[in-house]
Amino acid sequence: MTGRSAPTDAARRRTVLVLALLGLGGGLLLWSAATDLLRVPAYVLPSPLAVGRALAAGLAHGPLDPGGFWFHAGVTVAEAAAGFVLGSVSGILAGLALAHWRLLEQLAYPYVVAFQALPKVAVAPLLVIWFGFGLEGKIVITAVMTFFPLMVNMVAGYQSVEPERLELARACNATTAQMLRKIVLPSAMPFIFAGLNVASVLAILGAIVGEFVGAESGLGTLLMQYDQAMQIAPLFAVLILLGAIGYLFNAGIRAIERRVCFWAQRAGAPEAGGL
Question: What is this structure's pTM?
Answer without folding.
Answer: 0.83
